[in-house]
Structure formats: C-alpha cells, structure tokens
C-alpha cells in the first residue's frame, strides 16, 4: 500500500506517491483545479487512489512562519476533510512551511527555465511534503 502526498493550491494540486515500502516519494502529476468554482479534482484523485492502491494521504498544511494558520492553511484543512469523507482513508496534515521555496531552489539549481519550473513546481513540492512525512516515520 502506498501513501499519497498532495500540495494543494487554489489552481493546482501537486501529486506524489510513495514506493510500496514507504521509503521514497516520486512526483506523479499536477491536477488542474478551480477553488473558486469548487472543482477539486476529486475524481482524478480517486482514480489515482484505486490505480496505486493508496492507503493514506498526506496533505501539505501551509502555516505562517509563526505557526499560525492563515487562509491557505484553512483551505488545505477543508480539502483534507473532503478527502477523508470522500475516500474513507486516513488523511494527515503535514507542516509544509518552505517546501515550495525549497522545490523552487532545486529547480533553479537544475537550471530549469521559468516556464518548465511552473509546470512541475507543485509536483516537486508534493514530493518534498511526502518525503518529509516518510522520513519522519522511518
């Protein structure tokens, strides 16, 4: 059984999956969503859960640097609740402070163009969220 990691934004959700042993995270894809229209990519996430036999979901929780939860964090909490109710799987909220900046730094160091970075940044952030969770368990 695999663990899924999600980096939730207002327009996209980055998706990562663990290997079957739960040691490493790999980026899978970026799902287009529209928060304003309540389109959250639930069908696509459900397909991934079935296809990869996902047993647990880790959702990045963007906290402010002082540890408080702002509007993006509240949106992630609501998304996590929706996932839990829809799929009946355990959903863990994982502190994701600085993961998007760290992902951006890795992609910059790889000398990736801005256009290419924009396409993969959310998927890369999902990998970092999931890998942080996996490392804390192993």
Indicate the topology:
Blueprint (H helix, E strand, L loop, with lengths): L1 E7 L3 E7 L6 E8 L9 H11 L1 E8 L9 H17 L3 E5 L3 H11 L4 H24 L1
Parallel strand pairs: 1-4, 4-5
Antiparallel strand pairs: 1-2, 2-3
Enzyme class: hydrolase
Protein name: Putative pre-16S rRNA nuclease
GO molecular function: hydrolase activity, acting on ester bonds; nuclease activity
Question: What key attributes describe this structure?
Answer:
alpha/beta; Nucleotidyltransferase, domain 5; 5-stranded mixed beta sheet; globular
Would you kindly provide a written description of the structure presented here, covering whatever features stand out?
The structure is a single chain. The longest helix has 24 residues, at 114-137. The chain has one domain (2-137): YqgF/RNase H-like domain (Nucleotidyltransferase, domain 5, 2-Layer Sandwich), CATH 3.30.420. 46% of the residues lie in helices and 25% in strands. It starts with a strand and ends with a helix. It has helices at residues 42-52, 71-87, 99-109, 114-137, and strands at residues 2-8, 12-18, 25-32, 54-61, 91-95. It has 138 residues and is α/β, with parallel strands linked by helices. Helix 3 packs across helix 4. It has a five-stranded mixed sheet, with helices on both faces. Keywords: Cytoplasm, Hydrolase, Nuclease, Ribosome biogenesis. One of its GO terms (cellular component) is cytosol. Residues 1-103 form the YqgF/RNase H-like domain.
């Amino acid at each position: 059984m695999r663990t899924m990691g999600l980096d939730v934004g207002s327009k996209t959700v980055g998706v990562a999956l663990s290997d079957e042993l739960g040691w490493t995270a790999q980026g899978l894809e970026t799902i287009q969503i529209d928060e304003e229209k309540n389109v959250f990519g639930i069908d696509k996430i459900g397909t991934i859960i079935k296809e990869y036999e996902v047993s647990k979901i880790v959702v990045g929780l963007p906290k402010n640097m002082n540890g408080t939860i702002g509007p993006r964090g509240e949106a992630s909490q609501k998304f996590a609740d929706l996932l839990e109710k829809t799929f009946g799987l355990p959903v863990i909220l994982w502190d994701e402070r600085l993961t998007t900046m760290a992902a951006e730094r890795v992609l910059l160091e790889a000398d990736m163009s801005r256009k290419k970075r924009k396409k993969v940044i959310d998927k890369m952030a999902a990998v970092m969220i999931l890998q942080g969770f996996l490392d804390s368990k192993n």
